[in-house]
């Protein structure tokens, strides 16, 4: 039994639920555990759970927290959607993310008819939209629980309330009340972990729904972050990914303000942590101090995701990005001057309202000048409630698709050239496990995030080893262990 299990075990359910967090949740976890134990006994089998995660690293991390709570309640995890408890952790950043969830729900209805034990929960960003919750509560009555992004930590309480009330529970908060620390979490990998350093976003880029569904920017205290990283390190984690929608504005609103660069320094000072990554950097807030910290510190991975969104200053302005094409390019120059080996990746939106062929060519020009290692390209998707939803789009669907195709082609050509340029080098690789093809090869990541497959054995998983990059296969490498 670990420490947390002991605490939960010692709770007296004869007393009323405490008000303070996280003790309140421990209480409901224990209640949930009683239910799960009793049902398992009656059914003569384990109860299984499955979490389907859509969207970004924030959701991935939230799902690990959900998994931690479910595991403490006694559910056994399975990948399959044939589970006794299924959670969809949703994303709504673009319309197609949204559509996927409704697709899955259709299937779930049938599965639930066959398994009366089955519980279905919907959570995450989509649930923070009023019209979605209205649709679910009207047309998807078989859903058991609906909650949002601010109360993920309350899963056990929501579950108990569903069991006790016998009807659908909907619990959505407009914004976060507090940052609750010290709840269980299960890691997807034993040797690497995401760590939230902040929640929400204050930037209100005009196309983006994230500030509306994730609330205002809140930074965690550096002490709590460092303590979590130290705990993870003691537990075998060697790579940490610091997570926030805009890590460069970390700490500005804390009672004792601290810069992101300073936080990075402190994380790197933890001896057992060997690699540090972070996501995402907003170009407007990337400081020279941060560039220096990256340059000085070899633990920080040589990879920077720096979303440009558009190369046209006019469009950047309409997007409320608060930088220009020139200032972005100057920033890239400053970064490359101090950290020449860094791999740069980006996000680009094509077809933002008002984008002309000329604006698009400015984007192509930035792609040409920066030479990104990879770029994630998106066609603009209108999100209800954002300022851009009310803007006119002068371009046709066909024009936008044509721009998108041209951009994608060029981005891939450059990416291929970039990837092949390191052929023959020997680089450290964090070994993540055997690859999915089942050919017995190990798979791992370079500091710059490129994947490498190479022969090796199970004992190497979780270690950082030197691997020679022998053959470039497009976006990944085949390699062999170096002495
Ligand atoms: N906080 C991060 C991005 C989070 S969303 C940042 O500021 O960089 C991830 C990406 O989705 C964005 O960078 C953007 O390129 C894309 N995106 C966001 N809203 C979009 C929309 N309405 N249509 C198309 N792409 C969008
Ligand atoms: Fe969205 Fe902009 Fe915030 Fe990123 S910085 S999450 S794109 S509003
Ligand atoms: Fe999607 Fe929410 Fe992330 S909308 S991209 S899961 S913050």
Automatic annotation (TrEMBL):
Q: Tell me where it mainly resides.
A: cytoplasm
Q: What class of enzyme is it?
A: transferase
Species for this entry: Coprococcus eutactus
Quick one: a GO cellular component term? cytosol
Instruction: List, alphabetically, the SUPFAM superfamilies matched.
Output: Radical SAM enzymes
**Cofactor(s) listed:** [4Fe-4S] cluster
Q: Does Glycosyltransferase show up as a keyword for this record?
A: no
Key word Iron present: yes
Q: Which domain of life is it from?
A: Bacteria
Query: What name has this protein been given in UniProt?
Result: tRNA-2-methylthio-N(6)-dimethylallyladenosine synthase
Question: Which Gene Ontology terms cover its molecular function?
Answer: 4 iron, 4 sulfur cluster binding; metal ion binding; tRNA-2-methylthio-N(6)-dimethylallyladenosine(37) synthase activity
* Domain TRAM residues, every copy: 420-483
Coiled coil feature spans: none
Q: Which PANTHER family match?
A: CDK5 REGULATORY SUBUNIT-ASSOCIATED PROTEIN 1 (PTHR43020), MITOCHONDRIAL TRNA METHYLTHIOTRANSFERASE CDK5RAP1 (PTHR43020:SF2)
